[in-house]
Design goal:
Length: 294
């Protein structure tokens, strides 16, 4: 591929919403000249069969999108979070989030290509993520403490597995033990009937929030991370999220940004009553203004 004029050419059916082929049309689109072909434009297509599929599955179904239109599905068969949820949340605008406590989460990178991510969520709003590469535990701890000073969170959740334990210890040593929660993704979940472990549980809670509406930044890494993991079920019918090592085998990066957002759902700080009454007052004021306009 170092030869002048050499080219890669990739053909395929868009059956999966993740993986290297999907990324040719996604985050690596700037490196490729892409074309998607609707089979109805082909001279030798079986129009009768296509019409039958559309009648059976629906014009906008994933089956027709893939097999007829040449478009990627909204969700793979094993994809945990739908791309449609994520794109809707990029457009979503949260209201009344100011009256809820802020939760900060820190996903600590374990590998050279991964990023340590600091996420701050307030109500149904996720603020832009803070990402760091190549920081040791002491330097990352300083960044976390600096972020605490800026955001004044009611709770801080830190990934305590592996080298993350050092960040937990250092942040607590600097005087924030009263708001720090150490998270171990492999620990037992609160809802052990539904989820296999704590990581699956916080991703499940995040999925529920994205489904009903949550404001997230238009961040390509975050969006890719949210739709990347697949899932399955244990022998006890518990939801089990795909391991990061298995994601890497499929050509995907560790979902650091997605993990950071998911971790904010590990705790639920109490809502301040004064803040809550402020939200109700603003809601009443909007309702009164609407009534006066009517």
């Amino acid at each position: 591929m170092t030869t002048d004029g050499a080219r890669w050419v990739a053909f395929g059916n868009p059956t999966r919403n993740t993986g290297a082929f999907r990324e040719c049309f996604g985050k690596f689109r700037h490196r490729w000249k892409t074309k998607q072909i609707d089979s109805r434009s082909a001279k030798m297509c079986n129009t009768a069969q296509i019409e039958k599929w559309i009648e059976d599955y629906g014009e906008d179904s994933d089956f027709v999108r893939v097999r007829v239109k040449g478009e990627f599905p909204r969700a793979g068969s094993n994809q945990f979070i739908s791309s449609e949820y994520v794109e809707d949340c990029v457009k979503y605008r949260a209201e009344g989030y100011e009256d809820f406590p802020r939760v900060m989460a820190v996903d600590v990178a374990r590998f050279g290509d991964d990023s340590s991510v600091i996420a701050v969520k307030q109500g149904r709003k996720l603020f832009p993520l803070e990402k760091h590469k190549g920081l040791d535990t002491m330097a990352l701890s300083d960044k976390v403490v600096e972020a605490i000073g800026v955001w004044k969170p009611a709770a801080v959740v830190i990934d305590g597995v592996g080298i993350g334990a050092g960040v937990v210890d250092r942040v607590c040593q600097l005087g924030y033990s009263h708001i720090v929660t150490e998270l171990n993704g492999g620990s037992a979940p609160i809802d052990g009937i539904t989820y296999f472990n704590k990581r699956a549980e916080v991703w499940g809670l995040m999925k529920d929030a994205l489904r009903v509406g949550m404001e997230i930044p238009d961040d390509r890494e975050l969006k890719d991370d949210l739709v990347g993991p697949e899932y399955g079920f244990t022998a006890k019918n518990q939801i089990q999220l795909e391991k990061k090592e298995d994601m890497k085998k499929r050509g995907l990066q560790s979902p650091d940004c997605g993990d950071a957002l998911a971790m904010t759902f590990a705790v639920t700080p109490a809502v301040n009553r004064n803040q809550s009454s402020g939200w109700r007052a603003r809601l009443a004021a909007r309702s009164y203004a609407s009534a006066q306009a009517a």
